[in-house]
Amino acid sequence: MQKNIIVLLTAILLLVPSITARAEPVYKCKNPQGDLVYQGTPCPKSAQPVSSWNAPAEAPQPGNKVENATNGVLILKQHGNGHYFLNGTVNGKALVFVIDTGASVVSLPRPVAMLAQIYCKDQVLVQTANGTANACTAVIPKLQFGPFTIKNAPAMIAPNLSQPLLGMNILRNFKIEQENGEMRISLK
């Protein structure tokens, strides 16, 4: 547990200054010990690149999806770390969500929210796996992933979060099935 917290804190310390300064890419690497590390520089040769995220000026064009969406069903492949990642947009700004069934609401890192022109409404204290943290409530006017669009999605903006989380306030509206390293998301 302490090892995971140290890796998470290291990732936050590496990412927050570079992201807040300007919208640079974020690289996700798996080190030789199998730990995931988020950083502002490309993965070293001793680490396996898992994915990268960059905040482009425009939303991805239709047809450029990494996910497979067929007949209103979005199919995601599980990554080696056990997580599912999902390309999406908030207010037309592209991002990569981690699907997090343990998160109550959609949560955005502050730099991502600022790029998408999503601003704090009310300051709140939230309970996280690492204890109590300051955050703020927000509303995402338009959230998209796969073939789905959600308007006026409640969200949290967290100052020390390194990756956008797609939480249960959105996921509970969908049928979610997981089997053999695939997640299928469809309307209920």
In short, what is this structure?
The protein is α+β, with helices and mostly antiparallel strands. It has helices at residues 2-21, 110-115, 168-171; strands spanning 26-30, 36-39, 48-53, 68-70, 73-77, 85-90, 93-99, 106-109, 123-128, 131-145, 148-158, 165-166, 174-179, 182-187.
Q: Structural class, from secondary structure content?
A: alpha+beta
User: Which residue ranges are poorly predicted, with pLDDT under 50 across at least 5 consecutive positions?
Assistant: 1-24, 51-67
Order of helices and strands: HEEEEEEEEHEEEEHEE
- The figure for the number of domains is 2
Give a description of the structure:
- The chain is of the alpha+beta class and 188 residues long.
- The chain folds into two domains: 1-54, no CATH class; 55-187, Acid Proteases (Cathepsin D, subunit A, domain 1).
- It is built from three helices and 14 strands.
- It has helices spanning 2-21, 110-115, 168-171, and strands at residues 26-30, 36-39, 48-53, 68-70, 73-77, 85-90, 93-99, 106-109, 123-128, 131-145, 148-158, 165-166, 174-179, 182-187.
- The strands form three sheets. Strands 6, 7, 8, 9, 10, 11 and 12 form a seven-stranded mixed sheet that branches. It has a four-stranded antiparallel sheet with strand order 4-5-14-13, with no helix packed on it.
- A hairpin with a 2-residue loop joins strand 10 and strand 11 (148-158).
- The protein is globular and about 45 Å long.
- It starts with a helix and ends with a strand.
